[in-house]
Amino acid sequence: MILPGFFGKLPAMGDFVTRGLTASFVGPWDRWITRHLVHRFSEGSVSAHLALRFILGPEAFGPMTGVVMASADRAGRRFPLTIAAAPPIASTDIATLAADWLEALEAAGKSASDGEMDGDGLAARLVSLPYPAITASGDPVRRMALWTGQCKAIEVDPGAPESALRHFFPEGLEAG
Which of 42, 44, 47, 149 has a C-alpha 20 to 30 A away from that of 79? Predict the structure, then answer.
């Protein structure tokens, strides 16, 4: 059984929290989201409520799949929350075959980022959400694929993701 873990900030916690994810994933992922996503999940932006789904291949910290969304710690310092698991292979059809599981991860992450549970509560909830027993047989994802529950996955160069990220985070849009 492959259980998801998490990394990021939670309102019920004082600072960064990590459970169930390896340091070999968290280190490079932390640097990537700090560089490319933290400013996009800013308070007051349309994207503050967006959950971005991802598949990471072996050339981009993977195999790993999951969701990343806006969150903050108890002091209000913003940093995205990632909930993810390491599938046996990174394949394009994970986006459709694991859609219900990814939706459940989003719901758990939203509850946690809304302050409804702390790190222990989120870890306990994720025990009931193991990676689904699917047979992924689509094209391999070598680098990165991103999508949301409302749009299809697109391939992304993790070294130069800006044009792809603008697809999900239109600049200049404010919540209202």
Answer: 149
Nearest to 7 by CA among 33, 15, 88, 21: 21
Token pair, residue 90, equals: 């990174």
Q: What is d(CA 69, CA 82) in angstroms, rounded to the nearest whole number?
A: 7
**By the 8 A CB rule, do 66 and 4 touch?**
yes
Whole-model pTM over 0.90: yes
Cα(94)–Cα(66) distance, integer angstroms: 10
- List pLDDT tens digits, range 9-58: 999 988 899 999 999 999 999 999 999 998 887 655 556 678 999 999 99
Q: 5-168: what fold?
A: pa0076 fold (3.40.1730)
Per-domain residue ranges for the chain?
A: 5-168
